[in-house]
Structure formats: structure tokens, C-alpha cells
């Protein structure tokens, strides 16, 4: 008997739940006009938003370190300036692209801090590798985003080239001063050596005159030392003094190597337009799909939101009507 009562109670509960669901569906169907109006209003609002909302398009470019030819001027200049101590091409490629990355990051930060921020980003394609680098720019039109991204890349590239040009000119001026000082020092040392040689011959001449030696007293001149130079005789010593006075300075091979390096540096000409800090892997693309607003997604959300609001209005209104008689 108890079991039958429980079964009857469960059946009534199920029937009650089914009746409630059906009632909700019926209420919604009867209020379909209200729901439809809410959906239409939501669609109109979404359409207005789509009409006034600013479009956002993202152009993307991928760059890597420059080719050897793109930094050949820079590399050759450093080789002339520093010789064997100059960095190799691989190191220069890494340094230049790192310099480009830093300058571009600074530009992106400054653009983001403007009154009207611009979204410009640069980051490695592979997080664990320095290159290649992916650069993106978000604009209001597809063409505008593409052109502006190419403009910013060229702007930073020209900035790096000018900075390198300034650095090279500073280094050239420094090296010219250093090599010039080195040549002056070597010339001074050579002059002092010449003066010392003349003094030594003059001292030997005094001894020869005091000893009344006018003719050479030795057969082999290569055996003559500083102490025995007077044995060459006063005639020979006078002739040597005259020759030494007019004789040009004697320099070591290092002097001429220094002079050649100085001439190479003085004739060094840098053209910043031939220096580039990057190489395109992918040029700025023309975006096909805009980032926002998404028309299809916006309209779908408008329909769903309008339907939910309409259903809430219908159910709420019916609930209020059915609640008043009970009071």
C-alpha cells in the first residue's frame, strides 16, 4: 500500500514538472511578439555599434638578422679600424639585429604611451630563439596597418644606420688621433736616434783630432765599435757627420704600417644608406580578416541577448500577473 502511494506521488511530481515546462514553452510562444521585438531591438543596437565602432586590422611582418652584404660597409670599416681585433661578421649580425630589437621595442613603448595609443609589438617567433622576430601593427584599415608597419620598420632601420654612422665617425676620429700620435712618437724617437748618432760621431772626431789621426787605421769597418770609431780618421768622420745630417730619418717597418693604416682610415667613407639592421623573412602582409568588430559574432550575440531579454520580459510579466490574484 505504501509503495503504491509513493509511486503515485512520484508520478504526480513528474506530471507537475512536465506541466511547468510546457507552461513555460507556452508562455514563451504566446509572448513571441515581445521576444521578437527584443531581438529586433538588440539587432538594431548591434548594427549601430558595428556602424560606429572603429575597425581594427593587424598587419604582421617577420624579420631576421641582416645578410653579410647588408652590413658589408660596417664590417669593412671595423676591419680597417681595428684589424685582427675587429668582430667577425656573425657577431656583427647578432649585434645589429639586437640593436634593432631594442630600438623597435622603445618605439613600441612610446607609441603605446601616446594620447591616442598605437599598438605595435615585436617578439621572437620562437620564445627560446632571438631571431626571427615577429612584428605586428594594429590599424583602422588593412592598407593603413600594412603601410604604417612598413614605415615604422624602415624608420627604425634608418635610425640604426645613422647611429652606426655616428659611432664609426667617432671611432675614425679617435683612431686618426691615436695613429697620428703614434707616428709623431716614432718620428721623435727616430730623430733622437739620428741626433745621438751624430753626437757619437762628433765625439769620435774629437778623439781623432786629439790623436792626430786623419786617415783610417783599420782595414775592416765592420769591426769598428763606438769606442774605436776614432780610428776611422778625422777626414772620414767629418764626411760621416755631413752625411748623417742630410740623411733622412730611419724608421722601422711598424712606422710604415701605422702610416698605411692611417691613410686607409683617412680615406674611409661611410654611406649609411648601405647599412641595414634586418632582413625580411616576410614583408608586412595585407590582413584579410579584421580583429574587431566581428560582424557575425556580434549579430549572433545580439540575437541571443535579445532572445534572453525578451524571454525574461515575458516570463516576468506572466509571473507578476499570476502572483497578484494569490495576494
From TrEMBL:
Q: Which domain of life is it from?
A: Bacteria
Intracellular or extracellular location(s): Cell inner membrane
The record's annotation in Pfam families points to: Wzz (PF02706)
Q: Output the InterPro entries linked to this UniProt entry.
A: Bact_polysacc_biosynth/exp, LPS_length_determ_N
Q: Does the keyword Transmembrane apply?
A: yes
| Gene Ontology biological process terms in this record | lipopolysaccharide biosynthetic process
Q: In which pathway does it act?
A: Bacterial outer membrane biogenesis; lipopolysaccharide biosynthesis
Q: Where is the Polysaccharide chain length determinant N-terminal domain?
A: 17-120
For this UniProt entry, the molecular function terms from Gene Ontology, in alphabetical order, are: protein tyrosine kinase activity
Report the transmembrane regions from the record: 33-52, 296-315
Q: How does it sit in the membrane?
A: Multi-pass membrane protein
The UniProt entry's sequence similarity note says:
Belongs to the WzzB/Cld/Rol family.
What is the protein name for this chain? Chain length determinant protein
List the source organism. Trabulsiella guamensis ATCC 49490
Which gene underlies this protein?
A: wzzB
Amino acid at each position: 500500500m505504501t509503495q503504491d502511494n509513493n509511486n503515485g506521488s512520484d508520478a504526480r511530481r513528474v506530471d507537475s514538472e512536465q506541466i511547468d515546462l510546457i507552461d513555460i514553452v507556452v508562455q514563451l510562444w504566446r509572448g513571441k511578439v515581445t521576444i521578437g521585438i527584443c531581438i529586433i531591438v538588440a539587432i538594431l543596437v548591434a548594427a549601430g555599434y558595428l556602424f560606429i565602432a572603429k575597425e581594427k586590422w593587424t598587419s604582421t611582418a617577420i624579420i631576421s638578422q641582416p645578410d653579410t652584404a647588408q652590413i658589408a660597409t660596417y664590417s669593412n670599416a671595423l676591419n680597417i679600424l681595428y684589424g685582427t681585433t675587429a668582430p667577425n661578421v656573425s657577431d656583427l649580425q647578432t649585434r645589429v639585429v639586437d640593436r634593432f630589437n631594442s630600438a623597435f621595442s622603445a618605439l613600441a613603448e612610446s607609441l603605446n604611451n601616446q594620447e591616442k595609443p598605437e599598438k605595435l609589438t615585436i617578439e621572437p617567433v620562437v620564445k627560446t630563439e632571438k631571431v626571427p622576430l615577429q612584428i605586428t601593427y594594429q590599424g583602422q584599415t588593412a592598407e593603413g596597418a600594412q603601410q604604417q608597419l612598413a614605415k615604422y620598420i624602415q624608420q627604425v632601420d634608418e635610425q640604426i644606420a645613422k647611429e652606426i654612422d655616428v659611432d664609426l665617425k667617432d671611432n675614425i676620429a679617435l683612431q686618426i688621433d691615436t695613429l697620428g700620435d703614434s707616428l709623431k712618437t716614432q718620428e721623435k724617437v727616430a730623430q733622437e736616434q739620428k741626433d745621438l748618432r751624430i753626437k757619437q760621431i762628433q765625439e769620435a772626431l774629437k778623439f781623432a783630432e786629439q790623436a792626430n789621426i786623419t786617415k783610417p787605421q783599420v782595414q775592416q769597418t765592420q769591426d769598428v765599435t763606438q769606442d774605436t770609431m776614432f780610428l776611422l780618421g778625422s777626414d772620414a768622420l767629418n764626411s760621416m757627420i755631413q752625411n748623417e745630417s742630410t740623411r733622412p730619418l730611419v724608421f722601422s717597418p711598424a712606422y710604415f704600417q701605422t702610416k698605411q693604416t692611417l691613410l686607409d682610415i683617412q680615406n674611409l667613407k661611410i654611406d649609411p644608406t648601405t647599412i641595414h639592421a634586418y632582413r625580411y623573412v616576410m614583408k608586412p602582409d595585407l590582413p584579410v580578416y579584421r580583429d574587431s568588430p566581428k560582424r557575425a559574432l556580434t549579430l549572433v550575440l545580439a540575437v541571443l541577448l535579445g532572445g534572453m531579454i525578451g524571454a525574461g520580459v515575458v516570463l516576468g510579466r506572466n509571473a507578476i500577473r499570476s502572483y497578484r490574484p494569490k495576494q
